[in-house]
Amino acid sequence: MHRRSFLEAVLAAATALRAAARPANALKIGVTDWNLELTGQVSAVGLAAKLGFDGVQISLGRTPANGKLPLDDSGIQAQYVAAAKEHGIPLDGTCLDILHVDHLKNNSRAQKWVADGVQITRKVNTSVMLLPFFGKASLLTHDEMDHVADVLKELAPEAEKAGVILGLEDTISAEDNVRIMERAGSPALQVYYDVGNSTQGGFDVVKEIRWLGARRICQIHLKDNPHYLGEGKIDFPAVMQAITDIHFTAFANLETDCPSKSVENDMARNLRFVRGLLA
Asked: Which terminus of the chain is more exposed, N or C, with fewer CB under 10 A?
């Protein structure tokens, strides 16, 4: 066996052992490909595994080609599926980052991207797709929220059929997110809760996490940028306790900056911090 193949086999085995050592119902800690500085690159899968993460969230791309998302390509999808198998780590979700460009609240193209993203998410063997609402795409009024809810109500049946959850990540309150969910009326629509965004918005993240409960949260982003976790203003022991108390056992993905400019060192440091709190 070539040295590289041997090392890859050892890495895959070590990752599997780490996962087996944790209880099946334990919170899983993943990482975003963009914070690994490998947006839309298959190599993010191997790096996430090398650093000891339980999963990796991948980007679907912001620049379409011939009317298709970058990952709307069976060859690239096959590469991701193969990489996940090779490194013994799942793709824990996707991010429909083109919604930063075409906004779901006022752009009909965005509806196509959601529909296409659902199918791509299914084809790479994962079940959560993040829908971002930030900057000019932010939901500012109840009319905008209602419009998004009505659009997603039309799209939700296909997501349900594909077994894909649409995760709302935004700057509004937990109550307003639930208002959108209830108007859409589909179990395929849940909250993608970001503790950093909500803290910046002035919300009590511990209170919101407890109020939402595990059934209304599909995944979580953990961050307190530009700081290392535990060194900013967010009370992460309280946050992790709330997540544990609601029996949330899906993925919490690190979306953390790298203060030292070393992705590997800083991601490993933040991962150790979170795992220490869980232990």
From this structure: C
For residue 169, what are the β-bridge partners?
132
- Reported as a single tens digit per residue, the pLDDT across 218-227 is 999 999 999 9
In sequence order, the β-bridge partners of residue 29 are: 252
Output Rg (C-alpha) for the chain, integer angstroms: 18
Over the chain, what is the mean pLDDT? Answer: 94
141: containing domain: 3-278
Query: Cα–Cα distance between 19 and 48 in angstroms, integer?
Result: 13
Helix axes 43-50, 3-21, angle to 10 degrees: 60
How much of the chain is in helix, strand and coil states, percent to nearest 5? 50, 15, 35
Query: What pLDDT, in 10s, does the model give residues 97-148?
Result: 999 999 999 999 999 999 999 999 999 999 999 999 999 999 999 999 999 9
The candidate with the shortest Cα–Cα distance to 128, out of 39, 4, 252, 16, is 252
> Would the pLDDT of 189 be above 50?
yes
User: Could you give the number of structural domains in the chain?
Assistant: 1
